[in-house]
Amino acid sequence: MSEGSAKESGYICVQLGPADRRECVRLLASLLSSSGRRVTSGQQALVNQALTSCSLPLYARLLRVHTSLWYSDSDVTESSLPDGIHASISALLDHLEQKHGYSVVARAVSYLTLSRTGLTEAELADLLSSDNEVLSEYVQQGAGASYSVRVSQIDVERLLLDLRGFLIRMTFAGSHVLFWVSRHFKLVVAKRYLGTHEVRREIHSEMAAYFSGWWTNGHAKQFLVNLKSGANKDTAQIKIYTDRQPPSQPLVFTSLSKGAGQVNLRKVVELPYHMQQSGRWEELVHELLMSLGFHQAMVRAGLLGDLVTMLEGDKGSSQSLLLRERLLLASTLKSCACLLQPAPLELPMVMEMSLLPYLEVFPLLEGYVREIRQERRKRGNGLGVALCPAPSSVPPILCLKSDVKAKDVSVAEAAGTECGIVAEIMDDGSAWVWKGSRCDVVKLSLSCEQKELEFAGVKSSGQFVLLSTQCNKLFLWDVTGPEMFLEVKDPLKTEFEPKSDQQTPNKIEGFVRCQKKLFMWWKDESFVSVFNLSSETLTHFQCQSSVTSLVCSSNGFYMYCGQEEGTVSIFDTDSSSLLGSFTNSNRSAVTLIIICEDKREMACVDRTGNVTLWYVADKTQPARLAKERFTGGKSNNILNTDYSEEIDTLLVCQCHQVTLWDTCNWELWDQFLGPQGRAFTQAVLSQDGHLFLASLDACALVLVWRVCSGECVLSLETNEQPHTILKTATDVICVTRDGCLTVWDSEMIAAAGTAPKIGCGVKDVVFEPTGEWFYTTDGSEMVWRWRLKTGFPDAKFLHDGAVEQLCLSQDNIHLVTLSAGEIYVWQTETGQNILRISGSRATEILITPNSNFGVSISKRGLSQVWKLAYGSIVCSIHLYLSDAKVSPESTFLIGCHRGDLLAASLWSGSISKRFSCAESSEHVVAFDTLSEHPDFVVVMVASGAVYTWKVAEETVCRHFELPYTFQCQPQDFQMSSDGSYALLSTANDTMSLLDLSQIRLCLFRAEGPVIKACLDRAGCFAAYISLEKTCDCNLYPRPVLTVVRLTDGERVGSVRLSKNPLTLVACRQQSVFVGFEDGSVGVYSVSDVTTDREEESVRQGENLIGELKQCPFDKAPFSWLPLPTPSMIWP
């Protein structure tokens, strides 16, 4: 290690060599003297001779043990001292076996050797007591067979006393553990006692059982004892069940205080290791790697990196149990590492938010999410996810990069096979291969005449990869077989050694594998080479111009060659004869040929994206033109195509647009333009065709579009500009320009890309009292009805104009909407538009609490009170009342007019009540009605004074006046239904609340500016969204939803939101609704044991687990149409 690297790593490397013999002699004399022993002169001569052959300090320490057993008259010879360190250690173990017993010594040193981080003295005693072999010998030596027999701590200490000088005590994770002083002890113990794999597995299994706590809490363990009885000393074997009394091994030691307890570091470090080494893979995966409790303990212990390594598994290991689930967990933990390391208690919320969108893809993760919710219920408070908003990105399951690639080297070409093997050719001539999730990216080396070959290109077809070199050699690799490369020799492509940088190899354009033949063509060459894999013979087919594309019939009898001049030639592959040729009208190069053998059709896509369809019923007759289809617009060259026969769809990517064709009828389906100022570089279809993925120039993202709506719904992050997007049977792989591989699960992309959204930002949310159904509007012509249980909108209410407002009656029977000045009344059960009222000039609509009447408020005309079911006007209110509310008893419309608070009768329309007080004539700033005290209204005036107004009796009571530093903001003002709490304002990073029950002001400070806040009408909690810098990885603050308990101000929970919120509403069912700018909705359940309803919404949210959600494309929401014309026109 160099001096610089030593400073950087924090370690100092000291080279140890053999000591001088005289120093070893003095060391041995000192050790003997300290124990009150010495040797005679004759014995000393033998010692000096031994130290001459091995002058290591460890050998001197071992000689101290052997010579301390001599007496002055002992007859010693050269053979009395073991030769070398290993022999000395073996002699020491022989002596210990005679003194303490074979089983005790063998097992004790084996446990010390196979432990991962050493053992404490208590752990060693517990392990020996749990070992049947040790305990059987211990009982036979006279310890007796009782229910609670154990190896005594004194016997363990005696053994350790004899090993003093060879064990060192170190502090690890707060515990004093014992380690061997030298690796030589491990080598000798392994050879002496751990010679077979079965024995090692047995020891590891015993240690795994101990650290898992399997035999705790009085669980008796069986073992067999041989006892001699009777005069003949007959041996009888009996079964004994004993409680070995090991300590409990929880993941976290509970604390009597409110703290989170202390992590059992010994368990989290040792248990996974011994489970792995003992081959208990299923237990390791199911009980630890897929366990929230284990994850929490590891993260709290600061071992997040070790946890990720365990989840990803050892590269090259054959164990793939729940591999993709583990890779998703590892990817999620890595992406949130900077958040979880300083705040490990956020793990359950982070994991629940991250995993919920993908439970259908990975149903085995349902148990993990259920564990999160059970843990929250056990804890008694927290914030859960009842409906997860649509993801804006998808976490990769793997990110791979080879550390040995040069920094200045970039990818020249990449290809992938159907089974997921990826090959990259770098511009320095090196080749790299990735063989799947269990492998690293490794370099591929081929040599010819003792010279390593440099590669020029790579192509793939099915299960084959074709590699071309700089010297025009071709190598074929069948990835499903052994790693063998078959050289394909083509006499028309002569090999050469490049003599200058200007001389470039012939670039292979592509190849197709059909039956047992390989069809290859080169750039700017007019012939096709056909290689027979069985006979390894090569034949050639000559075309009219340069070959640009090729396809074969399913049986391999016919070959179709697309050429530069727009010509397609058909060949008989058996006879090598030309059957016919035909040319498209614009003579543009053919880039893709699609054969439909059932219909006897052939479609040709030219370089500019136009499609020509031919009938080829008889190969011997000229093809007949069926139709030509032109894309129109710019005629830029095609970048790539992607054809899916299963869904009859063809994608054509050009720099300015992506075009989709319906290949069943060969009609243009849709065209998608790229973002302004950006050009497409590649596009591919998703597996089901509902989405397509595309890369753009100068953009380190892979963007995902939803085909049916044309929205860009996802952005997949990469570390650099994508070079190639590859599809396999299960994954999407992005190869970046520097050669890194980012792998996403195809089904995860489909789940995230098809998650429900309503198109534009959610501007308003109303919900039924049960919270099961809720309605959203985004400012368009539609109102969407959602079902919380499924998480999908099941119906949409259409209007003839943009929806400005919506209201839901308290009996859930009627939905009233305001659109383009017209009022629509809908029946929620049937979706029927029963009323469409014109001429109202309304700017706001309300529904009375008794659900019988509607109120339309107009700024420039009369405000009308009307029967909700029929639309007939009951009365008119002449004055405009702003911020109006209907009294809980449905008798008054209360609102402000020029600073005064007025109450208009809903029967006559007249202003029958006016708020007034003798002390002040100030303007009313804010007010609210109280449903639990229907006679009263809480009023706040400009000076900060707070009043209650009994409307019916027109009596006013002044309670107190707020300090001038606390100003009420009318747009933020909200009150609980019982009048106990009021939300006054949000300013910067502060939310101000008023506790009317105790006459106190409360300030809640956030970690950043508060942008939205709401109050639970039941008076249990308040919720706010603030912009916070959650970690150093984020350049900008991100929104965080926080819920606080009103009674004591304690935080119930918080959640990091992945996108910008537009709407925040609290529901009586202990839930918070958040509407986002991308049209998705998140519903978060509040669990708090201090409320009477702490479990209701949490149980409702748990119904989401295990219920199969339906794909939104399989069943579109019902569309409820409005009445074609107004059914009623008000004067």
Automatic annotation (TrEMBL):
Residues 86-197 form the NWD1/2-like winged helix-turn-helix domain. PANTHER family: BETA TRANSDUCIN-RELATED PROTEIN, NACHT AND WD REPEAT DOMAIN-CONTAINING PROTEIN 2-LIKE. The keyword Repeat applies. InterPro entries: NACHT-WD_repeat, NWD1/2-like_WH, Quinoprotein_ADH-like_sf, WD40/YVTN_repeat-like_dom_sf, WD40_rpt. The keyword Repeat applies. The lineage of its organism: Eukaryota, Metazoa, Chordata, Craniata, Vertebrata. It comes from Lates calcarifer (Barramundi). This is NWD1/2-like winged helix-turn-helix domain-containing protein. It comes from the Eukaryota. Keywords: Repeat, WD repeat.
